Every structure is written in C-alpha cells, then in structure tokens.
C-alpha cells in the first residue's frame, strides 16, 4: 500500500468517526428534546368520526346512505421536539398554555372541564334536534355551572368543576348572566353567601369578592356556563368516546334529527363533516382549530364541510376554513352556516350523490 493511499484511508476513517459522533450527539439531543417542557400546547389535525355508530335515538331510524361526521383537533402539551415541529409544519400550531388552561388548572381539571362542556353540548343538540322534528322539549334552568376556577382567587378553595351555583345572598342565579348581574353591584372586599349543588348535595359557602384579572369588575374567579335540565320525549344515547369540548354540537344535532326524520335520508349518500357549537335557539357558534378540522375531514374523504359563519369578514370560521381548503387543494365543499336550519336547508337542496 502506497503512503498516499494510507494517508487517504486514515483521513476517511477519521471523517467517518467524526460523522458518527455528530450523528450520535444529534440522536441524543433529539431524544432529550422530548423531555424538555415548554409553555405551549400544540394543536394538530385530529380525525373525522362517523356519528351514526355513536348515537342511538329511541325509535329512530338509521337509513343513511352517507354519513355525518364530527371533527376533532389533537391537542397536548408541547415539549421542545413538538415546538420545533410546529415551526416548520403548516398543520401544527402553538398556543400559550394560559390560553388553554386556567391559571393553576391541572391537566385533570382541564379534561374534566372539556368533558362537562361536551355533556352540555350533547343535551343542547338533543333539544334542538327534537324541536326541529316537531317534538315538545322542556328546558329547566338549574343554575351556574362551574367550568373552572382561577388559581389564587376565592372560588379556588371552595368550588370544583361541575358545581352548580344556585343563588347569591338568597337571590336565585338560574343563568350565568344572573350571577354576573348580582356581582356587578358589589365591590372588592364585600362578602357573599353562595348556595351550590355538588354531586346532588346542596351546600353553602362565604366568599370575599376580589377584582378579577385584566378587569375592573369584581368576582369570585370562576369560568361560568349555564346548567340546564333538558327533558325530551325519547331516550338518546351518545357514546362520545372521551371527546371533549362543545364544537360537535351542530353535527350531533344533524345526526339526531336525521334519525328522528324517518321519512327521508338527509345525507343523500354524501360524507358530511363540519363543526360548530349549538345553542338552544339553533344558532351555530364559533369554535377553535377549524383549520385542523378541515384537514381531518379532507383526509376522511368528506364531500361537504359545514363551517360557522360567526362574524362577517376574514376573521370568521368560514373564511378560515375556506383558506385552509384552498391551501390543501381539497375538492370538499365548504358551506357557511349561521343556524342549524341553514345546514338542513342546504342538504334538502342537494341531489342524491351519484353512485
């Protein structure tokens, strides 16, 4: 072997050894990045899930030739690896932790809150669907539902997610607006007597009002919602499979209504996805992460996607959905809806999907 060839082989060996060290260090760094926390949550496209297998209406008919689908967003705490991924992926977003969970709220509390909101959304969907189908629906306002408490504020030590505030100083609070109205007449340092229900048991507690964060108003530090007892004439079973949040309200309403409407198949062979909260009057409300839900629906082969037309202009859910649809080049139709009646009217106008 010549001296030149020997030197060349030695250099090649050193180069290979150096590259191996770099690769090893990079692998270690990548592995460690999964254990480095950040102050962010990451959201990504979830899935589009057929609703018919999840919902069973007593006496209803499942004759759909197509399907209604709810859409989901994957969300979780972002470690350093996910943080870096979100910087380069068009289908991932970062949200500051405080925008997702309340100050001092644990992940367990967050999951509880999301599940409670889903339960409420299911009841609203049932009420709206039965009203659409011509049935009598009774709605009893039960009080102010505690959806979360703020760390460092009076309610944190006394109230839990799921509690229902029924009165303040003996004055009934059938809705969240009633609680806010009563407290708006008081000042920081005032003490109030709250009556509430927890797990079916009545209880009372004294709380001292404080000035709320980023606000001049006073309060006790809760995330309020309306708790209602909705009575419908038939039984509905909804297996939500651990999915949380209120955004499936519209699509659950359509599935329940279609099962009640036994004389016609509303889907007409189409795969219909969408999103949006539902109110008792049938209004469809704004949701978060609609861009991810459009991607999920497209991957599931949806033909139609209902998007809330919540505000006029470029900031609406509908416009955001349109922009995402254009970015990914989907053939799926993005349809704006302000109410559930808009969605029903659109489907009624469609011809049957060609075989």
From TrEMBL:
Q: Where is the Lon proteolytic domain?
A: 243-350
- Using the record's annotation, list all stretches that form the PDZ domain: 115-200
Bilayer-crossing residues are 21-42
* SMART domains in the record: PDZ
Gene Ontology BP terms? protein catabolic process; proteolysis
Q: What is its EC number?
A: 3.4.21.53
Q: Which UniProt keywords apply?
A: Hydrolase, Membrane, Protease, Serine protease, Transmembrane, Transmembrane helix
Q: What is this protein called?
A: endopeptidase La
Which reaction is this enzyme known to catalyze? Answer: Hydrolysis of proteins in presence of ATP
**InterPro entries given for it?**
Lon_proteolytic (IPR008269), Lon_Prtase (IPR027065), PDZ (IPR001478), PDZ_sf (IPR036034), Ribosomal_Su5_D2-typ_SF (IPR020568), Ribsml_uS5_D2-typ_fold_subgr (IPR014721)
Catalytic residues (UniProt): 247, 293
Q: Which family does it belong to?
A: Belongs to the peptidase S16 family.
Which of the seven top EC classes does this enzyme belong to? Answer: hydrolase
Entry-linked Gene3D superfamilies: 2.30.42.10, 3.30.230.10
Q: Name one GO molecular function term.
A: ATP binding
